[in-house]
Amino acid sequence: MSYISPFNRYKIFDTHAHYDDEAFNNDRDKLLGALKNSVCGIINCACNSQSGKTTMELAHKYPFVYGAVGLHPEDTEPLDLSWIEELATDPKCVAIGEIGLDYHWDSVPRDVQKANFITQLKLAEKLNKPVIIHSRDANADTFDIIKEYRPKGVMHCYSGSAEMARQLVDMGIYIGIGGVLTFKNARKTVEVAEQIPLEFILLETDAPYMAPVPLRSKRCHSGMIINVARRIAEIKGISVAEVLKTTRENTRRLFGV
Ligand code: NI
Questions:
Q1: For each of the chain's 257 residues, which pLDDT tens digit applies?
Q2: How far does the centroid of ligand 1 lie from the alpha carbon of residue 18, in Å?
C-alpha cells in the first residue's frame, strides 16, 4: 500500500490528529491499519460533541488510538460539560481538547471563547486530565489564562515566540511541533525548536492538515511526522532516533500512555 511508512523501525507517537475528519472517509480503516506498523500511538482530538463521539469510537476500535474531548474555540455549539465529562471518564480518553482561543475568524465572540476555555480548564483540573490547547492569533490572551489557571498540558501547533515558549515551559507546558517546522517561512518555529529543551517537545500532525515538506500539498497522516522529527534532529544536532525516543517519553509523562 502506498501509504505505509518506510520508517517501520521508528515508532512514532502523533499527539494531535483528526482521523474522524471526512478527508479520511474513503480509506480510514485501510490507512489506520497500515499506520499501526510505524505508529505506536495517536491522540485523536475532538472539536465538539459529534467529533467527541467519533473520536472515542476510533479509540475503541484501534488499540493505539486515544482520544481527547472538548469544545474547540471556533465551534459555535454551546458549551455543555455533561458530554465532555461523560466521555472523559472513558479510560481511553487521555486529555481535554482541543480547547483554547481562536481570534482568526472571530466566529465566536472572544468573551465566550475565554469563558469556555476557562470552564474547560477547570473541568480538566477536576478530572485530573491534561489539556490540549489551540491558540490562533490569540497568544497573549492564551498565555495570560494559562498563567492564571496553571493547567498541565500542551500548546498544540505552537505559533508564538521563542521567549513565550520558554516561559510556557517554565510553567510546565509542553510545546507541540508539527509540519509547520518544515515550511520555508518557519523561522520562528525553528527558533522555538532550537531554544526549548527536547524534554518539552511533543510531535504532532494535525492530520489531515499541515503536511510537512516535501509532502505539503498532500493529505497529512501520522507517518509523515518523521519529516518533523528529522528537522528537529537537524536543528538540535542529535539523531532522529533520539528525537523520537525523548518525545515518546514526554508523551507518556504528560498523557500517561
Ligand atoms: Ni487540531
A1: 445 444 545 689 999 999 999 999 999 999 999 998 889 999 999 999 999 999 999 999 999 999 999 999 999 999 999 999 999 999 999 999 999 999 999 899 999 999 999 999 999 999 999 999 999 999 999 999 999 999 999 999 999 999 999 999 999 999 999 999 999 999 999 999 999 999 999 999 999 999 999 988 899 999 999 999 999 999 999 999 999 999 999 999 999 99
A2: 7
Instruction: Give the separation between CA 193 and CA 211, rounded to whole angstroms.
Output: 18
Q: CB-based contacts of 147: which residues, under 8 Å, 6+ apart? A: 171
Q: Which domains are delineated in the chain?
A: 14-255 (3.20.20.140)
Element (H, E) at 28: helix 28-35
| Ligand 1 centroid distance, CA of 72 (Å) | 9
